[in-house]
Amino acid sequence: MTVRAGVDTIFTRPAEPDTRRRTARRTQSDRTLSDRAPSGRTPSVRPPGTTDPGPTAGGVLDELSEVLFAPLPRSDQRAKGALYLRGLIAAEGRKSIRNIAAQVGGPELAQSLHHFIAASTWDWEPVSRALQRHADNELRFTAWVVQALPVPRKGRQAIGMWGVASDVTVPVRWHLVPFGEAAAGCVAAAARVCDPSTIGPRPVVLDLPGAELGPVFDRYARAGAPLLSAVPATLPVLDQGAGRGAGRSARSLPAARVLQLHRMLRRPVEWTDPATGAVRRSLVGGVPVEWAGLPLLLLGQWDAGQEQPVGCWLTNLTATPLGVLLRLAKLPRRVEQDFAGSASHVGALDDYEGRGADGWHRHMTLAAAAHVAQVVAAARARVRPWTHCMVSMERMGRSF
Questions:
Q1: Cβ neighbours of residue 322 closer than 8 Å, sequence gap 6 or more
Q2: Residue 146 to residue 126: CA distance in whole angstroms
Q3: Please, are residues 169 and 274 in contact by the beta-carbon 8 Å criterion?
Q4: pLDDT tens digits for 186-227?
Q5: What confidence tens digit (pLDDT) does each residue in 220-279 have?
């Protein structure tokens, strides 16, 4: 099966087995946390006094809850997970546990939900993997973006993984970089966030400033997975371009210098600015290089009137058209724009008020799930993407 990417190229993805079936939507009922759903499924709990969210929104949330919380060993954990997910969507303003509890049963639930997130024994990793698979099945991602973002007021960095579809981007996985590992830790965190053995043949775009990317490129090369990463203009690479001259050996030069030496290879390329929606034109050039022992392509972008390249990237997609590569390289900007417009509705990076890293990961995993639920509900209702139809999404969020 092939899927046409939103960056004007085609990537092959594994065919899904014919036996794949969607989880049946269940009628919601007001059950207590101690009730066990039939066949061990997660109970669907609706806050007292709320109305049925309807077949599209409610069905999406029920399906997602069953998929995510099936790995949890205890029925009370599955029920609390469903409550927390519902509360993330319904709560307005800061997604504190107090606000979440107020939406799904009252202040008396706050302590129980806090324990579920901060001190319970359930593992967030299987839940995160289940979310990634479910979101991919629903939204049909054509690329992945792995990006480092600061966590406000905590002085730390988080590595997020987004799935990119034709008209939406959604976070599906998060990792909190440990204190004191802002650069080196990015590599380990990115490796945990984005496993080339599980993401399929779609390209991965990295935006990890300050990280040592050699081990990441080596890992993707061994896995045969497509990768494109922003790199500093000063990064030394071995120039393998044909313009070096006969008999001359490759030499190590800064990436920007190599691109300048081959600027006659530049071609005009159009791309859409995620911030404004305007179509822009840039000059783009590509030069074969060797870096970290790997044959790669060095991509450069020049804007009008600029002598030096304004952006440099390395990729193992050496046969891909330059226009496609530049549009891939712009996906992190699209992610930033989408996340800035949607984070307050599903959970920002600093909403979690606890101190433990496990609690932060549990909260952010469910915040990503809330994001996916609303985007999938919007897609099924055939409304426009989140950032273009915020009013409709707000109404949908309240209906949960």
A1: 267, 269, 284, 285, 286, 299
A2: 19
A3: no
A4: 787 887 788 888 888 899 999 998 888 998 999 999 888 999
A5: 998 889 999 999 999 999 998 765 544 456 778 999 999 999 989 899 999 988 778 889
